[in-house]
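User: What would this chain look like folded?
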Amino acid sequence: MQVNHLDGQDSRWDHYVEQHPAGTIYHTLAWKNIVEKHFKKQTTYLYIENNDSIEAILPLVLFKSALFGEFIISFPYVNYGGMLYSNEQAKTALLSAAEKTLTASKAEFIELRSMQENEFDLPVKSKKVTYYLDLPDNEEALMKQFKAKLRSQIRRPIKAGMYAKVFTQDGIDLFYEIFAIKMRELGTPVYAKDFFSTIFTELPEQARIVVVFAEDHTPVGTAFIIHYKGRMEIPWAATLRKYDKLSPNMLLYFEVLKYAMSQNCSVFDFGRCSKDSGTYRFKKQWGGQEKTLHWYYLLQAGQSIPEVNPNNPKYQMAIKIWQKLPLPLTKLIGPAIVKNIP
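Assistant: Here's the prediction, encoded as structure tokens.
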């Protein structure tokens, strides 16, 4: 059993991800290319090899920031992408290799993102959850799954003349304008538009954009969706606040669910949120199964679990300032900041 560093491309890596039950699109080499090409991050992809067969993998991404310090994430910007392994021996060997990587670096910690409780004997944060909704094979069956109140909320924007369309890369401009507005409202730096173009370049078959339009054809809501191995995920979504009374978000999510079924997906992943937040209650109402996200930490001596998130009080003033900036300015300077926020 040998620990190796991935050098270039190796078809065995993606094959391992494809066949592993916990493998996600963020474990694939396509996502490695996205992070390296767009964010210019240094990556270390470790794997355990035994008799020419891969038995465990771990993608690591190094962050160096004057504001947040130096740390390593598996995997940043998204919910998943931590260690995959086929047996306990490979898991132990790969965790030991990760510890050596941390010790040899100036990083304060390595964060391993997982959905498994008690996966590692390490400090852990379990403050975030997602919802998985099992999908039937047709719209009628889907509607029958929902409570009457939810069905009524879905029909409200339709009665108001709203409608939705699915786009490929040609929908990026529509998506980005709404997304940038919403990120400023939240006080969060926005990704560069090129980030989403890079995703389409690397994953043209898996990525799509859904846009909801008002009766007068104004774009009012949007979602960037990705599917892999029968699971559709919605990493980024936004609606314009001035249209909230017409509930475009309900139509947006319903149209995304319909599209997921058209792609033969059996599960829809609503994406992460904080428990008991407004977003949490929105996702819960769709009737999916709540799943806790567990983020484990390898720490340098003397370090504690980090709090690099908007709930940290020291970032509250920055959030309030960001919400008052002109939209064009947030698009200009936001990408340089958000690339260092995992």
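Residues 126 and 294 are 5 Å apart (CA to CA). If you want, I can go into more detail on any region.
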